[in-house]
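Pasting as-is:
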Amino acid sequence: MSETSTEAQLGSDVPPDLSRAEMQSAVFARMILQQSNLAMMLLGKAPNPQTGQTECDLEAARFFIDQLEVIEAKTKGNLTRNEETLLKQSLMTVRLAFVEAAQTPQAPAEVAAAEPSAPTAQPAPAPETKTAPSESPGAVEEEESKKRYSKKFSL
């Protein structure tokens, strides 16, 4: 690839007096930031520029994180100190955001959309008159607590 074609790809925001190595470093930094920004957008940390809405798509975000990990593995030993620092910090940031997004329960609007009849979706509490005389009130509360708050997470 010639130097003039690289300049054309970078656009008008790159000064013409940059050396080839500096231009490649700038393109590399832009690529890393682009991958990171896409992952953050898909993790709901930034709004989609087309819609203005935040969205959370963990599988798509994981794809961009995987791409950054491949870049890290394939460029090991060939990066400048600044490039290596940018890549490591970007990976750390998107990985942390991924963990946070994976552990965050759905937003109330999403839950309401998923469960149109929220009041009837919960099991009705059992009347206390049906409690067997041998069971203590504490045991019943503990059993109800286990039923109410058990939730499975899968990625």
